Amino acid sequence: MPRLENSRGEALYYNVVEKNGKIQYVLKGIGSTVILGRDKQRRRSRIFTQEAQAEQYLRRHGFEVTY
C-alpha cells in the first residue's frame, strides 16, 4: 500500500482491491487529509472503478509516491 504526499504536506494511501469480482482503486486520507468527492464533498476516502480516474485525481492534486 503506497503512501503518497503532495507539496502541501497532505498524505494518503493508494490501494488496489478486488470487491465483488471487480478491481477498485481506493484512496484513503492520512491524518487530517481530506479527499474531495464527486460533488466537492469532503471525505476521508474515495473509491474509483477505473485506474485512469484514480491516477488523474492524484496528478491533479500533486500527489507523489513516498515510502
Structural domains: how many: 1
- Characterize the main sheet: 5 strands, antiparallel
Task: Determine the fraction of residues in helical runs and give it as a percent range.
Answer: 10-25%
By DSSP (H or I, 4+ residues per run), the number of helices equals 1
The end-to-end distance, rounded to whole angstroms, is 10 Å
Percentage of residues in strands: over 45%
User: What structural class should be given to the helix and strand makeup?
Assistant: mainly beta
Query: What's the multimeric state?
Result: single chain
Order of helices and strands: EEEEEEHE
Biggest sheet, strands in spatial order?
6-3-2-1-7
Radius of gyration: 11 Å
Q: Work out the number of β strands.
A: 7
From the spread of the alpha carbons, the general shape counts as globular
Task: Give the low-pLDDT segments.
Answer: none
Instruction: Provide mean pLDDT, rounded.
Output: 91
Protein name: WGR domain-containing protein
Organism: Flavonifractor plautii
